[in-house]
Write a structure and sequence with these properties.
The chain has about 210 residues and is mainly α. It has one domain. The chain contains nine helices and no strands. It has helices at about 1-20, 25-45, 50-70, 75-80, 80-85, 95-120, 125-150, 155-180, 185-210. The two termini are about 25 Å apart.
Length: about 210
């Protein structure tokens, strides 16, 4: 287990270091989510209310995560390093887990800018809403890392990734919005936690088959 966690940490650290050097993913995510919220601020009718605004927040977060996931496997595929990672002696699921942690770090950094901007333009987020953002972010990165790996090997990956990712993200949007506007947010938070657990296990188990095929 110690070796497994060390491999995961090394792979996640590799992605973070590459991003610190290149700065081609995180700045794009931050600019995209802020620009999207600004557009929604001026496009949303004045009497639409906070419920509609929370829905727009999740539209912005989902597409921001999609932007980051589209570049998640670029270093491995462009440099041909994925074959080397697959042939390494470590468990192949460490590749998925390291990539998921790195994607979660990028999305979390973008949310540190997006959530204050949302509070400024629309409405503040309470505790359950923030918990919903955290749980849904885990689900987005866990599922997104798997489907982006599937799409990275395909010829039309720019089209295939949204087609695979967006249907799987719909339950997370439902749970995230529900945790923000429902009088009983605990039900939606429990739903998000269950989604994260189930799909994380499925993604962890299926990743070896994805990279070998």
């Amino acid at each position: 287990m110690t070796d497994y966690l060390a491999d995961v940490a090394a792979l996640a650290r590799k992605d973070l270091r590459l991003e610190l050097r290149a700065r081609d993913t995180l700045p794009a995510m931050v600019l995209f989510v802020v620009a999207t919220l600004v557009v929604f601020h001026f496009a949303l009718p004045g009497g639409a209310g906070d419920d509609a605004a929370y829905g727009l927040l999740w539209v912005a977060l989902v597409f921001t995560s999609l932007l980051g996931l589209g570049r998640a496997w670029a270093p491995e595929t462009e440099a041909g390093a994925l074959d080397g990672l697959v042939l390494a002696v470590s468990d192949r699921s460490t590749i998925w887990l390291g990539k998921t942690l790195a994607a979660l770090a990028f999305l979390g950094a973008a949310e540190l800018v997006a959530l204050p901007a949302f509070a400024l333009f629309f409405a503040p987020l309470d505790g359950p809403a923030l918990a919903g953002v955290a749980l849904a972010s885990i689900g987005l990165c866990a599922v997104g890392s798997l489907v982006s790996a599937m799409a990275a090997a395909a010829r039309g990956r720019e089209v295939l990734l949204p087609l695979l990712f967006l249907p799987l993200a719909i339950p997370l949007v439902v749970g995230g919005v529900g945790s923000s506007i429902s009088p009983d947010p605990g039900t939606y938070l429990a739903f998000l936690g269950l989604y994260d657990a189930v799909f994380a296990i499925l993604s962890w188990a299926a990743f070896e088959y994805v990279v070998t095929e």
